[in-house]
Protein 1
Amino acid sequence: MSQSKWSLERLNEAYRKGYFVGLSGRQRGPCPYEDEDVLASAWEAGWHDGNDAVRIHRARPAASPGSTDPGSIGRAQSG
């Protein structure tokens, strides 16, 4: 791996691309930034975060019918 120049924009882009791959539930596969240390790390961090988000969502119990949205508590009572 080489030391390459990188910018904040490229770092964010690498993270987002990795995040969406992880969020899609796909296996990690090859990193498109494998030749660029910092960007590869950002992509891998994004993949891990996206993958964790999927696992957390799947582990959460489904809302039962008639359950209240936590964000609506208090709104229904105001008037």
Note: The radius of gyration is 19 Å.
Protein 2
Amino acid sequence: MLVATVHTSIINVGIMIGSAVSGVAIDADYGLAFPLWVGRKWGFLV
């Protein structure tokens, strides 16, 4: 049971970080397509 809880927590942290970085990128006028690149790079890091 502990493994399932930790796995869910790690996924939630990844979603939170990806959303935050994408929001900063959109706010910095990189455009609405830039979150796709953030997700791609984040996927390669993990």
Note: Residues 13 and 35 are 17 Å apart (CA to CA).
Protein 3
Amino acid sequence: MKDKTVKINKKDIVDFLDKLNSEYLKIHKTYEDLFWVSYMGDNSIDDKFKKAKSKLNEFRSNRALAEQTNVFF
């Protein structure tokens, strides 16, 4: 029987987390900025806000990212 243990180096984990955090920060900041503009009554950006919210939800539910996280942790 072959050993199915995958050797993972610390740098790969750090690089993955850095990329994940960087992407999430960018997506969330866009969403957050548009949220407050819309919340304060400027509905001219509602389409952008809806797209930003959709992109944030897509990121949060990305199966590939979840699977990669499970590999590392």
Note: Residues 10-39 form the longest helix (30 residues).
Protein 4
Amino acid sequence: MNSPTSKHSTTTASPSAETPPEVGQPGAPDSPCVAVCSTLFDDICRGCGRTVMEVSNWVFMDDAEKQAVWVRIRAAGYPRRPGTT
């Protein structure tokens, strides 16, 4: 009983501004959150690069809206994990 969802790829492409993760695809993160929230004090989160409105409305966005945010934040060099520049 092999299912297609039980197989994992061992190679991954390096993310870039041109190739953001495909929202809704298996293995793709739904949210760019890296647990470095700064939206209480900043207009743009220092961790994920989303605006306050994008963070607060993320769960209500459809896949196309999320994909547009992913494209924009990747082009700006986000998400930024703690300990990286």
Note: Helices lie at 52-57, 63-75.
